[in-house]
Amino acid sequence: MLATLEEKLTDQVTDHALELPSSSNSSKKSQTGRHANGADSAAKRPEDRSPPVRSDIGTILLHWTLVIAIVTSLLTGMRLSADAEHAWFSKLFEPILPQGEIWTWHYVSAIFVLAVIFAYAAYMTLGRLKRRISSKKIVVLTLPASTKLRLAAVNVIAYWILFGAVLTLSATGVLLYIGHGGIWVTVHYTAALVVLTYIVAHVVLHYCYGGVAQLLRLFRPQALRRFPGMSRHPLALATALGAIVLVGAVSLDFGTRDSLVVAKGNTLPELDGTLDDPVWQDAAPVFIRTQQGSNLDGTGESTVEVRAVQVGDKIAFAFRWEDKNRSLKRHPLIKREDGWHMLNNRADISDETAYYEDKFSVAFSTTDTFGGGGATHMGPKPLSDKPAAFNHRGLHYTTDGSLVDVWQWKASRGGMLGRVDDMHFATPVEPNEAQAAGKSRYSAGYNPDEGKAFYVYNYIGDPVTHYHGTVGVHRLPIDHKKMTSLMGTIDLSTEVSEDEGSQWWMFENESVPYSPEKDAEIPVGTVIPGVLIQGEYSGSRADLLGGSRWHDGHWTLEVVRNMDTGQSQDLAMKDGLFMWVSAFDHNQTRHTRHSRPVRLTFN
């Protein structure tokens, strides 16, 4: 029976049999033998000249391929995690995390992890190597076995924990990829931490088991030993399976992506922020799950409904997205005893998540590259020869000379007045003197189109206090009581909806340049808008007209533009363009996102 147990627990890779303590009788015989052979017999034993331990070629190749894929996935994933609003642990690794176009590396490495896992499982089955991770080895922990076999049993437990964590990572990664967020973000992150912990524990366990020689075995190949019933070519068959999984995953992804069919219409819709126009009834919608944004009632998620219709040489889009509150308070100013203060939480680093307006962004690209057409570059300083982003989150730009056409609706900066800002991602521009000195925000390739907008800001920041002390004011209301009335119910909580028809911006004809005399007329506690509307939109920046309305927990936005504006900073609307959408719930840059673009298809 003991012999049978030893046979079952023998590791065919390490060749270590179960080492049970000797019985008292066998100990006595051993001692008698030693006395009979002489006290110095041990000194005459030949030296142990056993060859160094090795691993088979298939195990080595699959092991290191999996290690590279997992480490790449972990490092890129930690970079994405470090971007989260309240991240702290992943930020500890900031100095060693990669920067730049992270999304492609993260997704590609994740697919490779999935493919190699299938290949590894097939290889162990075809090569009859499953005994390496047999759960039967765990029984050693209940027996008076040697330290080595106990470590081997612990290592088996660690293997199964790894398998569970990687499978969890894969499953939740798929959920995130197709648009599910919420709790799955936390589960995905936790599984990644388990894998990270395993890597360290794995190295330590193997070192304790056999020292440096045990670690070096994965650099010392040997042919796979043959066993009855083993496949003739286990590595080739396993690699083929991995390739099939890889191709299948990619094909499934591309084959299930949404297409937005642009309908044909005869009359443009009225731009009033409703979908009552008959033209919208003939336009089939697509629904895009977006997630990992800031706010949005704590979920960070918003599903976006999109429709499109072509009317002659113009195209109209309708966007409807979830947002519990109607937020218009973009950096309002409040008068206190010591002067005017601009309400904010992180305006100094361009990462406001409290006193800001709702926004919505659409990006069009000629390529479906991950990260919004390859234009999203993560990290504190993705461009080594250019200034860093103030918020250290990354920069938008393209590296191949391509253009991403960006439309941005900004509720209090013209959005409620029928304007949508026309912008773009392109090759990084050279920083000006203030940007190079770190005194002004550098946005790389993210810039407005040529022309002018009609909004400016009503505050002058102090470089010492960085918006956390008093600020200067450009203009004051002619009649502060009337301005207060136009703003509707003033509730400085960031989680309440502003009144329908309320105005959290100030027109030029409603205001006068700042003067101490006019300031003295305004009582302490008065709140005035932080946005000024003056002048007109012009140039390429004025290509977009829109209409918006918030109702029952949803924003609806209609946008009209020429099919081809003829502007170098715009993309002509044509079959095969790819589209991404993002919702901002009273925050500056922490919008929702989705991984898979939607393809435009014209009838």
TrEMBL record:
Tagged with keyword Thylakoid: no
Transmembrane residue ranges: 60-82, 102-126, 156-178, 190-212, 233-252
Keywords: Cell membrane, Electron transport, Heme, Iron, Membrane, Metal-binding, Transmembrane, Transmembrane helix, Transport
Coiled coil, from the record: none
Ranges for region Disordered: 1-52
Compositionally skewed regions (Basic and acidic residues) per UniProt: 1-18, 42-51
Keyword Phosphoprotein in annotation: no
Membrane topology: Multi-pass membrane protein
Residue ranges of domain Cytochrome c-552/DMSO reductase-like haem-binding in the record: 277-596
Stated name of the protein: Cytochrome c-552/DMSO reductase-like haem-binding domain-containing protein
Organism: Roseibium algicola
Origin organism lineage: Bacteria, Pseudomonadati, Pseudomonadota, Alphaproteobacteria, Hyphomicrobiales
